[in-house]
Amino acid sequence: MNSDFSLEETTFSIPYTGGQDQTEESNDLPRPLDMTGDLPETYEARFEAYKEAWGKCFDRIQSIVERLLEPYVQAVVHKVEDANILPGLPRPELPVISISNPIFGASFLNDVCDRIEAPSTHLYPSDCTNLSNAMRSIVTGLAKDEDPDSRVKHRPSTFLATYDINYLVAWYRHLVSMRGDRPTLLVVLHNFEEFDPSVMQDVFYICSQQLPELPLSFVLSLSTPLPTYLHITYSRSTLAHLRIREVTIPNGLSVLNEILSESFFSPGSNPSIMLGPTALRFIVDHFSRHNRTLDSLITNIQLVYMKHFTVEPLTCLLHNTPSLEESENGSEGNLSEGEETPGSPSPALLETVFERIVAVDKKGEFLGSLPANESSGSASQRRKTAMDISQRVLDEVDTSRLAVRAAYRSKCIAFNIIKLIHVCLASEGLRVLGWDLEQQLVEIFVKFLEGGETVDRWLRQLALILRKLSLAQIPRIITQIIEKVYSFSDSEEDVAVAELLKKVRNEVLADQNRPDLREEHATSLSEWVIETIKDLLGRIEDHPLWEIWYTGDMPFPSELINPSTRASLLSGLLRPLAFTSNPVVVVAPTAEEEDQEDSLWKLPDTSILFHRYLDSGRMINVYDWYEAFQVVLETQREELIKAKAPQKKGRKGRESKSPKKKGKAGSESPRKKGKGKQPQVEEEDDEEEQGEAGEEAEEKWKLEVQARFIRALHELDYLGFIKHTKRRVDHVLRTVFEIHE
């Protein structure tokens, strides 16, 4: 396992490297069913492309989140460090910082703790079930030795209890003597609404009694508006011991809009994978209705990436196109046989790319640009023509990559210009398009991706509004557009557009004293905006190979977000061969045979045991269950022996049908006396050896059956299908009933 992983990771990938006792024939593991039209030779290249694409997207999201949270992290750090006790109060007040943090979760609080060079501890509701556990968690979480050699050894009878606050006071005095300063001790309470108020009010009271000798500060992570929860739940006597200060973090759809806008909607974002309408709609719907957290948003975007690289075999061409130079330098013999050299595209990949390009080449321009393939030429000429066609196909991939990215960027530019004009018109107090940019921002961008009548209606409304602008309003609108265009990029096209707008703005400013020219300038601006936007709204789907870089209407894998666990488990156990293959059985049953009792031996062991599980009552006798399982395995053993030796069977049948040798009278020839004793002894020895070998094989088979039964039983136990009982040791309870097969 990679040492860079931490315990905060939820999943670890430990690849199987094989053991020393593994042979080539033993590598017969179940394999998932291949999807139609997939290219298995591109799996590794697609995985590498996915890692690069997702790494780029994840790093950008992290940078956006860090920029959003930076001022709030600094505010919390300042409040923690400025936790001085106010003088002149009748009782000391415990510093408490309430943070409304329903989206960013523990990541924001971890950043705060990393910025503060002081001892800190994180507590969750499960750590504070009662007062003793709560105090023990606080004391042991903070009282950590910075120098293990400086620990003073005491007799066991002189130790304080770990839940005693005086233990923490003594430790803090030692810490101050070592460091020379008085750091603030920080206690972070996650999901504060789930803590028991009766326990926490005692904790607050105990900690407040140690001030100012023990400078404690509490950070409360809340998901409710501030400070309503504290004032409703806790009594006035408890609140009198607290000095509550509030920090409100950005929340709701504003965070979602900011992350998606800078990651996918900005012309300068240049995402590796461009999300389509279906994926964007699902992400917004799931965020707004089900789970408003940053982890959920990142997970959904990552699932879109994973699904795209899974279902689209050509995503191996996402970042770059393989070259044919290595193939050209290879041996002619290999090329003539159709074998690709390492690093070169496979014939199946080239064929798939060629078919995709031809499918959208309605005018035949691509086919017309290909060199003619003369069948009457020599082998070297045909080989050179094939290489030229392959190179032309790969060049078309590079052209499509630039064209698709340019088309997506043009839509982003059109969206941002219209949004800017909408905001400017709203600030001028004019009638706008009726957009709610906080609630409908993603849906508006989706409409620009789809095009159609909705965008045309918006452009007609915008043209009418722009024609009514005054001479004073026109320069302000143009100035905002110029600044926006400059923010896109420093390309020559953007700079030329900005310079053109500057000339128009200067002309309008020069004609400020001529009201008769207002309509002319307003109409000119309106026509320019509408024509520019229409030129930018080209269809991405019109370009060949757009499926590589754009998800389009690909369905979101919602079953991975909220899977039907029970149905999936039952389907896998009842019909396992619909999901994977059984390496033990060579001949798989058909769909009709799976439901038949006679084909049960063709299923995996766990599925066999589960079918016998369905035939039992509320309590299952384990020995009877084993006997039923053994019967099926015996049938499986016999069927596999028959399948492996069909030819031997045929030869034995022919020998049995052949006539025996007979004497002159047609009877069997008599045996000669005195010469059959030695062969008879040898036959008896052979029979004894075969009997001993058969007994040994039978013992091994019984052990194998027992081992396979125990393994299948443990798998069902792990899945929760059985429950052990103390009343009958040899019985287990069935936990799942009413299964419709």
From TrEMBL:
Main location: nucleus
Superkingdom to which the source organism belongs: Eukaryota
Region feature Disordered, mapped onto this chain: 1-38, 322-346, 643-698
Residue ranges of every copy of the Origin recognition complex subunit 3 N-terminal domain listed in the record: 39-317
Limits of the Origin recognition complex subunit 3 winged helix C-terminal domain: 566-737
Molecular functions per Gene Ontology: DNA replication origin binding
Biased composition (Polar residues): 1-14
Similarity remark: Belongs to the ORC3 family.
Keyword Transferase: no
Pfam family, one: ORC3_N
Gene Ontology CC annotations of this record: DNA replication preinitiation complex; nuclear origin of replication recognition complex; nuclear pre-replicative complex
Biased composition annotated in UniProt, kind: Acidic residues: 681-698
Protein name: Origin recognition complex subunit 3 N-terminus-domain-containing protein
Keywords associated with the record: DNA replication, DNA-binding, Nucleus
Example of a GO biological process term: DNA replication initiation
Cell location: Nucleus
